[in-house]
Amino acid sequence: MAKVDNISEQEGGAIRRRNERAILAAAERVFARHGYRGASLQEIAEQAGLPKSNVLYYMGSKRKLYVRLLERMMERWNAMLDDISPEDDPAEVLSAFIRSKMQISRRHPEGSRLFASEILGGAPFLQEYLSGELRDWVQSRAAVFREWADRGLMDPVDPIWLIFLIWSSTQHYADFEAQVLGITGRDALSDEDLEKITEFLTRVVIKGCGVRHPAPRAEDPATLTER
Amino acid sequence: MAKVDNISEQEGGAIRRRNERAILAAAERVFARHGYRGASLQEIAEQAGLPKSNVLYYMGSKRKLYVRLLERMMERWNAMLDDISPEDDPAEVLSAFIRSKMQISRRHPEGSRLFASEILGGAPFLQEYLSGELRDWVQSRAAVFREWADRGLMDPVDPIWLIFLIWSSTQHYADFEAQVLGITGRDALSDEDLEKITEFLTRVVIKGCGVRHPAPRAEDPATLTER
DNA sequence: GTCTATACAAGGATAGAC
DNA sequence: GTCTATCCTTGTATAGAC
């Protein structure tokens, strides 16, 4: 089983890794643009600079390739889903939440559109993820938001609708990029634009939900030294 | 040229209108779900209860059918785009704006998803509409919002980002319906849910943008009689 | 006016040459 | 390990039977 004619053998050779990366990048673009059915292996292969059958050789099938891309996007997503507790400062948490969502949209617009396309089509591949893992995540954050509201740190808004508000308003700049650019008349949004938008959304959400700073607690040394 | 064997002859017979309606309804669903390329005339025909070639017979081509659906959605859209002036009450205008957007999402979810799919794919058919007609519309509303800010009726937020915020957060319930249902664990959102969401979004936007009621003007009789 | 039959390209996937 | 040739299905579109 040992093959000595290939130096970097871990997880397939270096050429394999390079080709796989090229295929994944191209496939993300094409799937994002045309959806699962509308995307063709032909186009993916062309954009990856490989013959059509190599895509299948490396990825097995169109379906496997698509699922792999979805999973990769979910991982990026999860990497930013830090835990929060009722002890945290609501304004800081919401601000960080909005900022990280904007950064994902900025860094992975095709991934965001791929996900959007999947949901738009009724989420045939992601249904159990949505009603399982993601639902649990949302419910746990919602519980924290509710406790903040109970403690008077923010208005008693429904946390679920708040989370959807943040998701939709941030993803919009990746998913509806074509519309944003058409209406603003630009080639692309600059980093400064995105900073401005982030500040705008943060401001509206925090002010709109009546978020207040928590009173510093005497029993918390960290809070005391900071002031 | 006169044909007397058909009673309701205006714009084609009654059967024709019925078939066209069935095709348009089916096509909207299928295009919304799979995108332009991913949609097949086969599936559209099946859902319309007609043989495949009748779809082409009535609509000419896949492309024409798609364009016709987009135009129909733009018309529904335009029907709700009432004019506003700097004299209007900002809170009322924003509230009505959010409400009408939510109603379109509610009444035409497939149309909303069709539009979303078109934008997601880079808006190949709608580019000039976005950077022309729609851009002008947005700029004119933005001017009104700016004047409100200048007159101290709301915070000086960028009107363009505000419009995108309203669009994205309302459309989300049509476009990402699969996600919303998965996370909330329901079959469908009720009218009461949508009323709650509308109130929530209105509240956050108005409060978040610091919208204030305009001072009643002495020279305006209508305002005086109302108080 | 409406549907069946068919043309012809493009799709995903596999077998086998290199 | 990589690419060419090929199979079979499905797609859009049209011609012609009913």
UniProtKB/TrEMBL annotation, chains A, B:
The keyword DNA-binding applies. This is TetR/AcrR family transcriptional regulator. It comes from Halomonas stenophila. Residues 40-59 bind DNA. GO terms for biological process: negative regulation of DNA-templated transcription. InterPro entries: Homeodomain-like_sf (IPR009057), HTH-type_TetR-like_transc_reg (IPR050109), HTH_TetR (IPR001647), Tet_transcr_reg_TetR-rel_C_sf (IPR036271), Tscrpt_reg_YcdC_C (IPR013573). Keywords: DNA-binding. Residues 17-77 form the HTH tetR-type domain. One of its GO terms (molecular function) is DNA-binding transcription factor activity. The keyword Cell division does not apply.
